[in-house]
Structure formats: structure tokens, C-alpha cells
Amino acid sequence: MSKRDIDIATDDGTAKAGLFTPDHGTGTNPGVVLYMDIFGPRPGLDRMGERLADNGFVVLVPDLFYRFGPYSFDPGTAFDDPDTAARMKGMMKDTPVDVVEKDTKAYLQALADNGANGKVGAVGYCMGGQHALTAAAAYPERVGAAASFHGGGLVTDAGTSPHKRAGEMKGAIYIGTAGEDKSCPPEHSATLAKSLREAGVNYMLENYVGMAHGWAVPDHGVYDEAGAERHWRRLVSFFDEVLK
């Protein structure tokens, strides 16, 4: 696996991203956009990009908060400081779904320009889960598989809510929810499953019992190794089956 830091031109500026490529390309390495959680790009997400690349994918980890300039958040302490927590939440609020959806067009092109073949996968964590599902709805001819883990904002009143866009999705969908997660309570899972099923989407929704919001991300305070490994088995087999 090798990593390169690249710049991606968007309609609003230049997004920085990490690009992870397999050491031994087969000529049929699918691309994956990995949508960050609220803490942004960092070594913890690099490790996740590396692991996907080691499994034969060309992985792009873009900085969704590039409009705000340089920043750095420590997942272990960021929410302990009120000012830091407010800044993160403000950046997330000021990077709405439709803005990331527009940026995703450039992310998909960057994957194509860097050797990704065929349909693309999307995976997101925390706020990134919503963006991964949005990518499946917004770019159905490009995104063949999308996965959300402990995603937030999957069922809202907004027109951009993924459950309202199920009819636009043509790819396969995987949703892994935390057993206890205020950002995706049981009623949201039920609404999302109903919308996907009625739209005829090929989907799986799985509840990770005992896991908390953020369990799959290695530097998160609630990281759970057993639960994270289960998530990796599901994610890699899902992308292998659909994209390869």
C-alpha cells in the first residue's frame, strides 16, 4: 500500500485528500471514497484507508472541511473543550449535505484519474455515513455500493435525507448501526429500512449490539476492537461482492 497527498479542484476551491493505492495493482482495482467523521483527516483515518487499499481498492479520503483552512482535532479530547466542540459542530453545519454532494463529483473524477476501475464504493462514519448514502443517490451510475457505519442524519425532515432519496439509489446499500446511538435511534432504522425496501433497493441493515457511536474508528474514545473487526469483515466482503 502507498499513500499520496493530492489536491482536488472543486467548484469552491481546493480539497486536500489522501490517496491510498494497492502495492500490487491487478488492473481491476475499484475505487472507494471514504467520508470522514467530524474529527477530519488524521492518522486514524489513514489507517482505515490503508486497510482498504491492502484489500485491493484505490481509496480516497478527502477533507470535507477544506473550506475552513488548516485545523486539527483530537478525537479523544475534542468534545471535552466547549470551544473546540462548538467549532467542530459549526464546521459540520456549514458543510451541508448538498455541498458535499457537489464536491463528490470531483472526488469521483479524482479516483478515475488515479487508476480506479469500474463502479465506485462509498463508505462513511458518523456524519460521513449520510454523505456515503447521498453519493449513492446523487451518482447512481457511478456508485455501485455505499456503506454507512454509526451514521447520523440518515432520517431527517430535510429533502436531502437519505431515506427520502432511496428511489434514486441503484447500487447496493449496507448500514451498520450502533446498538446505542442517539444519532440513529431504532425508529430511524425502521424508517430507513422501510424506505429502502419500498424503493426496491438491494440493502442490508445490521445492528451492532453493545456498540456505541464511533466504535469502528480506531482512535475514537469508544473504539471496540471486536466490533471494529466485525465491521471490517462486513465492509470488505460487501465491496468485494458488489465491486469486484
Task: Report on the architecture of this protein.
The protein is of the alpha/beta class and 244 residues long. The protein has a single domain, classed as Rossmann fold, CATH 3.40.50.1820. 35% of the residues lie in helices and 25% in strands. It has six helices and eight strands. The protein has an eight-stranded mixed beta sheet, with helices on both faces. Helix 4 links the parallel strand 5 and strand 6. The radius of gyration is 16 Å and the shape is globular. The model has no long low-confidence stretch (mean pLDDT 96).
By CATH's scheme, which homologous superfamily applies?
Alpha/Beta hydrolase fold, catalytic domain
Catalogue the unreliable spans. Answer: none
Strand content: 15-25%
Distance between the termini: 18 Å
Number of domains: 1
Q: What is the N-to-C order of secondary-structure elements (H for helix, E for strand)? A: EEEHEHHEHEEHEH
| Radius of gyration, CA atoms, in whole angstroms | 16 Å
**Broad shape:** globular
- Average predicted confidence as pLDDT: 96
- Could you state the oligomeric state of the chains shown? single chain
Number of helices: 6
The major β-sheet equals:
8 strands, mixed
CATH top level is Alpha Beta
CATH architecture label name = 3-Layer(aba) Sandwich
Q: Structural class from helices and strands?
A: alpha/beta
InterPro entries: AB_hydrolase_fold, Dienelactn_hydro, Dienelactone_hydrolase-like
Protein name: Dienelactone hydrolase family protein
Domain Dienelactone hydrolase: 18-242
Organism: Pararhizobium mangrovi
